[in-house]
Amino acid sequence: MTLYGVGLGPGNAGLITVRGREVLESADVVYTPGRLSRNVATEYVDESQLGDLDFPMTRDEEKLRRAWKAAAEAVAPVATDGTAAFVTLGDPNVYSTFGHLRRTLDAFHPAVDVEVVPGVSTVTAFATALDVEITAGSELALREADGGAAPVGPDRLVLFKVTDVPTTHEKLREAGYEVTYGRRLFMDGHESVITDDPAALAERDYYTVAYAERPEALEEPVTAAFEGVSDD
Asked: Which of 20, 54, 81, 200 is found 20 to 30 A from 214 (Cα to Cα)?
């Protein structure tokens, strides 16, 4: 019948969508690609409903392709005869592993119907956690910054996978950006960290996001004129 790609949101079981919860509760098998997503999924499904898939920690493209073919072969019969769900943190179409499974199914199991259930992604979660307003007309770029990378561009940037915060921070500051970091935002069982001090995040962590802006280039919204004004 159908494979659903379900976005679980940033890692808090309370931030999954109503539709996402309905799909998980009705699926015959729910596949999880990692421990954190599994922890969220088990808030809504029994352990016996979960399916295991093996994904090696490697950059070897041939090994990765073999792993995704094996995953598709495991998922396809369930999705053909009933309903399967593959869950990811965030949104299935934003910096997610789900795209690999979808492409593999399209190539080798085209009869499987695929439907995406969107989730709250880091793109929106960070704005709330860091108290950042992305105003109308703003130019915002999403980039990946693994291993100390610091891609630059428009006046506002959101960087994912900031695994070497001190190196990325130094490069962004040299490019004229002010930077705030968030780590493990809204994740159940983990302390969320929000800071502009790179030394506080020196330890490598995949779940770190950076928000960078060039303050001199930002325009104030029209209602900013109300700040400090009182009706008294």
From this structure: 200
